[in-house]
């Protein structure tokens, strides 16, 4: 299974960039994960909705016919780490080839993306920056593979 | 209000250490936050319960008579970022001087700490490493102060 994490805008904080690299290394023995950054659609001024639409279209261009998409969204379903690991295993078992987590950008998702019948997953009731959400997602993916591999993972 | 975040064991990942410094800088204009690391109580072998007890006693030694303690615990109450900001404001309004977030260590909290009538807050249904939980807590504290200050915080 190929996993992609896609977000709008590159991480600005160097500790996040480092953390992404770190989890990439840790995840390598388990799964192929690609992190992809889409361009920001402009400032955050008056044209908010137009910018979100423009950014949203970039996600749609990425779609492959056999893509399983999960939106990280605050109104999504919350899983425990164990449930999330079992969810990954289930996707693997039913033969999902391409799994994409869409994280959005500073302005959130366009209505077009939100209206798709994609599963929504929430990492927390709390709101995170999208770069922090990426870091947490990678940590949970690593945790999930450790759980499925019966490995202890403490630090 | 003085805020302390206390955890057992020092962060091992350099990106976490960097992130903690970064949020420390960002939080400086708003609040005094001290991050304190308590010693690990030994290996993670057979004497798990004894180690947890030993580690737990170090938290009790830190307590000042006027301390408001919050345990970060997966069975705690979940707040949205906005609710968390209002909670902080409420503590400030009622004159809390010393607020401590206890994060525990790789083995979790001792029964002694869990039996105290302290408030428990959960960052997510997912389990995080305690060093990751620290990073998320600091991010949420920074977000909370930005919310209370009516500042936009995107990245």
From TrEMBL, chains A, B:
Residues of the signal peptide: none
Keywords: Cytoplasm, Methyltransferase, rRNA processing, S-adenosyl-L-methionine, Transferase
InterPro entries the UniProt entry points to: Alpha/beta_knot_MTases, RlmH-like, tRNA_m1G_MTases_N
Gene Ontology molecular function, alphabetical: rRNA (pseudouridine-N3-)-methyltransferase activity
Annotated compartments: Cytoplasm
Binding site for S-adenosyl-L-methionine: 72, 104, 123-128
Membrane-spanning parts: none
EC number annotated for this UniProt entry: 2.1.1.177
Record keyword Transcription present: no
Reactions catalysed: pseudouridine(1915) in 23S rRNA + S-adenosyl-L-methionine = N(3)-methylpseudouridine(1915) in 23S rRNA + S-adenosyl-L-homocysteine + H(+)
Example of a GO cellular component annotation carried by this entry: cytoplasm
Quaternary context: Homodimer.
Family: Belongs to the RNA methyltransferase RlmH family.
Function: Specifically methylates the pseudouridine at position 1915 (m3Psi1915) in 23S rRNA.
HAMAP family reported for this sequence: 23SrRNA_methyltr_H
Protein name as it appears in the record: Ribosomal RNA large subunit methyltransferase H
Species name: Mesotoga infera
Recorded name of the encoding gene: rlmH
